[in-house]
Design brief:
The protein is mainly alpha-helical. Helix content is 59%, strand content 5%.
């Protein structure tokens, strides 16, 4: 199998976490044309006409886009160990946390992602502050439903952690650092406790570390280009 993805996007991160947890061998490929790259996506559209990451390509050549769909497929195809709770209510909570992340938290960040592609001189600070306020509101929604056992749901790693952990890197670290605003870390007690606890899980820590390194690399390249 092949996974087309980037390390800075939070969506492939949930797929990698599941692959690592299940010890599934996969070739990881970073296609051109994403994030700060000026390259064309080119032939990647032949693999995924939507032009987004991730895409899972099976050994027989079939291609599957969309991170949550990929995770559901992998859970069905490789059921052990499972990152879906057996209890129906707990399983619903996993899906709820993922949905809150994808619909509310990600959408709140869209203006911040858009600002990233423009010169700092053109940034609309009022719009940025409004977006950061929406991010904090979205974190409050997640706080309401977050578990207290050290993981997003229950006392073990689930797909909810794959959805939430990479988003918290963006909310707690990337956005405050980039836009020079205070981090919302600590304003929601359950989320703050979760953020400390989840980084002690070796699989979650691995994907969090990969994401941090990738964001740091992107920022270093941007600084170098600005100087050059």
């Amino acid at each position: 199998m092949k996974l087309y993805q980037t390390y800075t996007s939070p969506f492939p991160t949930r797929v990698r976490m599941l692959l690592y947890a299940k010890n599934i061998a996969v070739e990881i490929i970073e296609p051109p044309g994403f994030h700060s790259s000026a390259e064309s996506k080119g032939d990647y559209f032949k693999i995924n006409p939507i032009g987004r990451v991730p895409t899972l390509v099976l050994d027989d050549g079939r291609c599957l886009p969309e991170s949550e769909v990929i995770c559901e497929y992998l859970e069905d195809a490789y059921p052990e160990p499972s990152l879906r709770p057996k209890d129906p209510w707990a399983r619903a909570q996993v899906r709820l946390i993922s949905r809150l992340c994808d619909i509310y938290l990600v959408m709140a960040m869209v203006p911040l992602f858009n600002a990233l592609g423009r010169s700092r001189k053109t940034w609309d600070n009022a719009r940025i502050d409004a977006a950061l306020a929406e991010v904090e509101k979205s974190l409050g929604y997640i706080e309401e439903y977050l578990g207290t056992g050290g993981y997003a749901v229950g006392d073990s790693l689930t797909q909810a952690d794959g959805a939430l952990a990479p988003q918290l890197i963006l909310a707690y670290e990337w956005a405050p650092n980039l836009f020079g605003r205070p981090s919302p870390l600590g304003r929601h007690p359950k989320l703050a406790a979760y953020w400390t606890a989840i980084q002690a899980d070796p699989i979650a820590a691995r994907v969090i570390g990969e994401t941090r390194d990738a964001i740091g690399g992107e920022q270093a390249r941007a600084r170098a280009e600005a100087k050059g």
